[in-house]
Amino acid sequence: MAEVNLNIHGKAYGIACDEGQENRVAEVGQYVDNRARDIASAGAASNENHLLVLTALVLADEVKELRDSLQNGQANNSAAPQQIVHEGLPEAEERKIIESIEQLATRINSVAERMIGS
User: Fold this and answer.
1) What tens-digit pLDDT sequence spans the chain (118 residues)?
2) Residue 46 sits in which domain range?
3) Closest Cα to residue 82, out of 95, 97, 63?
4) Distances from the Cα of 13 to the Cα of 29, 73, 83, 108, angstroms
5) Number of domains the chain contains
6) Which 8-state DSSP code applies to residue 47?
7) How far apart, in whole angstroms, are the C-alpha atoms of residue 23 and residue 20?
8) What is the CA radius of gyration of the chain?
């Protein structure tokens, strides 16, 4: 088991991951940090816990939109080749990204719940 240190909105988080996934987790973590910073700069969050929850919701919404567009694309293009491209990514790669974002959103929700419960 490997560990990656992420910095999300100025706070450090140690995240355990499978060996070899460190770069992927760091990349997705950077994406989460960027989204959190966007939300914070818009003044949408009243505190750090609220920011983490809003970020998780935004990421979950992005995942849902991707899934919906994939389902609609597959329904509309049933005769098309199996490779569905979104922003130039093969379907398998896109699925990995979606799964990573979902896992991070779950972890963010868990952290937010622990922080709120403290």
Assistant:
1) 999 999 999 999 999 999 999 999 999 999 999 999 999 998 888 898 899 889 998 888 888 888 888 778 765 554 433 333 345 556 777 777 777 777 777 777 666 666 666 5
2) 2-117
3) 95
4) 10, 37, 35, 10
5) 1
6) S
7) 7
8) 16
For 4, phi and psi rounded to 5 degrees? -120, 135
If one counts every other C-beta atom within 10 angstroms of the C-beta of residue 100, the result is 19
Tokens of 67: 């899934």
What's the CA dihedral at 54, 114, 104, 44 to 10 degrees?
10
Helical spans, DSSP H, in the chain: 22-41, 48-76, 91-117
pTM for the model: 0.61
